[in-house]
Amino acid sequence: MRIGIVNDLPLAVEALRRVLAQAPQHQVAWTAADGVEAVDMALRDRPDIILMDLVMPRMNGVEATRRIMAEAPCAILVVTSDIESNAAQVFAAMGKGALDAVDTPLLHGAPMAGRHPLLTKIDAVGRLIEAGSSAPAPKTGERAATRHLVAIGASAGGPAALATILKELPAGFSAGIVIVQHVDARFAQGLAQWLNDQSALSVRLAQEGDRVRPGEVLVAGTDDHLVFKSPERLGYSSEPADHTYRPSIDVFFRSAGQFWPGALTGLLLTGMGADGARGLKELRDKGHLTMAQDKASSAVYGMPKAALQLDAAREVLPLEQIARRLTDLPGLRLSTKGLSE
């Protein structure tokens, strides 16, 4: 894969080059010292993946990500020092279309056992780029009509899209919401807290054995797959072990379609690749309402496009209309009552 490096520190660039040299299939296409130069290089020579730092002169990584995704879209992986301390900027960059984040490798340090995390991330992004979107075999099933779950999947651009939706939902929103966002497990707690700060609803990480409750938002919190293990009971599963996406939206949507006993709305937001499209199709085949974000409002029009190619979404909506559509669904009302135990 051809890779662009954006970092203003020569030692960091050299460290990145050394790690990439361990994988001959990857080639450094160019390097840029700041966001302005990165945008220019991406327009002139678009690579497969850009390794984007956050803190740089002239133009930071968040704005550079926004510009590149608007003008020369390609896969962007945030690679920066101390990513936990820069969590807000990481989420901001993901909101503009970055796929994931990883620490900048050290030029001088103890040898690392096994494959370097940067190469693992790049391989995952490569599989994401190549992910197919062929239609699945339809399944049959019955749709129940009591209580309501909104199941949401998102990837690149997802944090900002999720914040836009959640901040528009009222505190008494009577559906339970479960979100699978492609994000490294280290950032999951920070993502949930960031969304909670912007929403009238309670947002927290999903725990093993959780129930879905009205007015509460549960976010997948590990690198294992979030699934329903029984009606209304959530948990985590390592299977399928070889799945490209961890956690997988497809895996979650399928488990929701299998176990959830009430009304269900599936929503697929911005993201690269095709994860969630097949699962959304299976939800539609079972009679559930399915929605996808439209092209104009998507930071990355990959997953919603794959859903449309499968005829998986009954409705396609701009981001700014999704919250209103959810509150207008039949049977959803303002309520402070919890689900029965």
Automatic annotation (TrEMBL):
<feature type="domain" description="Response regulatory">
    <location>
        <begin position="2"/>
        <end position="119"/>
    </location>
</feature>
<keyword id="KW-0378">Hydrolase</keyword>
<keyword id="KW-0614">Plasmid</keyword>
<keyword id="KW-0597">Phosphoprotein</keyword>
<dbReference type="InterPro" id="IPR035909">
    <property type="entry name" value="CheB_C"/>
</dbReference>
<comment type="function">
    <text>Involved in chemotaxis. Part of a chemotaxis signal transduction system that modulates chemotaxis in response to various stimuli. Catalyzes the demethylation of specific methylglutamate residues introduced into the chemoreceptors (methyl-accepting chemotaxis proteins or MCP) by CheR. Also mediates the irreversible deamidation of specific glutamine residues to glutamic acid.</text>
</comment>
<protein>
    <recommendedName>
        <fullName>Protein-glutamate methylesterase/protein-glutamine glutaminase</fullName>
        <ecNumber>3.1.1.61</ecNumber>
        <ecNumber>3.5.1.44</ecNumber>
    </recommendedName>
</protein>
<comment type="similarity">
    <text>Belongs to the CheB family.</text>
</comment>
<dbReference type="InterPro" id="IPR011006">
    <property type="entry name" value="CheY-like_superfamily"/>
</dbReference>
<dbReference type="InterPro" id="IPR001789">
    <property type="entry name" value="Sig_transdc_resp-reg_receiver"/>
</dbReference>
<dbReference type="Pfam" id="PF01339">
    <property type="entry name" value="CheB_methylest"/>
</dbReference>
<dbReference type="Pfam" id="PF00072">
    <property type="entry name" value="Response_reg"/>
</dbReference>
<feature type="domain" description="CheB-type methylesterase">
    <location>
        <begin position="138"/>
        <end position="327"/>
    </location>
</feature>
<feature type="modified residue" description="4-aspartylphosphate">
    <location>
        <position position="53"/>
    </location>
</feature>
<feature type="active site">
    <location>
        <position position="275"/>
    </location>
</feature>
<dbReference type="InterPro" id="IPR000673">
    <property type="entry name" value="Sig_transdc_resp-reg_Me-estase"/>
</dbReference>
<keyword id="KW-0963">Cytoplasm</keyword>
<feature type="active site">
    <location>
        <position position="155"/>
    </location>
</feature>
<dbReference type="InterPro" id="IPR008248">
    <property type="entry name" value="CheB-like"/>
</dbReference>
<feature type="active site">
    <location>
        <position position="182"/>
    </location>
</feature>
<keyword id="KW-0145">Chemotaxis</keyword>
